[in-house]
Design a protein that fits this description.
Helices cover about 90% and strands about 0% of the residues. The longest helix is centred in the middle third of the chain and has 54 residues.
Length: about 90
């Protein structure tokens, strides 16, 4: 049995057509898989950004803490100055 050149061409072209279709289908599946993975990671990133923004809102700067501390301690400082003045007055008495 002898295969002529035209039959070989048809067999090779069919092989390449089927191979190309298979490769295209496999690549399409891989692209869909990667796309779904990226969407999943994008969702995780959005959740992480929301958590970071929540933490950032709860964060109090050092200057704000210092200001709050000064506000809360100012009455005590005033009382200490008054006591210091009273002690000096008592020590200067004969």
């Amino acid at each position: 049995m002898q295969i002529d050149l035209e039959t070989v061409r048809w067999l090779l072209s069919g092989f390449f057509l089927i191979s190309g279709s298979l490769i295209t289908w496999l690549l399409g599946r891989k692209v869909e898989l990667v796309d779904s993975t990226l969407k999943e990671h994008d969702g995780r990133i959005d959740v992480n950004l929301q958590q970071i923004n929540g933490i950032k809102q709860d964060f109090v700067s050092k200057a704000d803490l210092k200001e709050q501390l000064n506000i809360q301690l100012s009455p005590i400082k005033d009382d200490m100055r008054d006591i210091k003045g009273d002690v000096k007055a008592l020590l200067q008495r004969p």
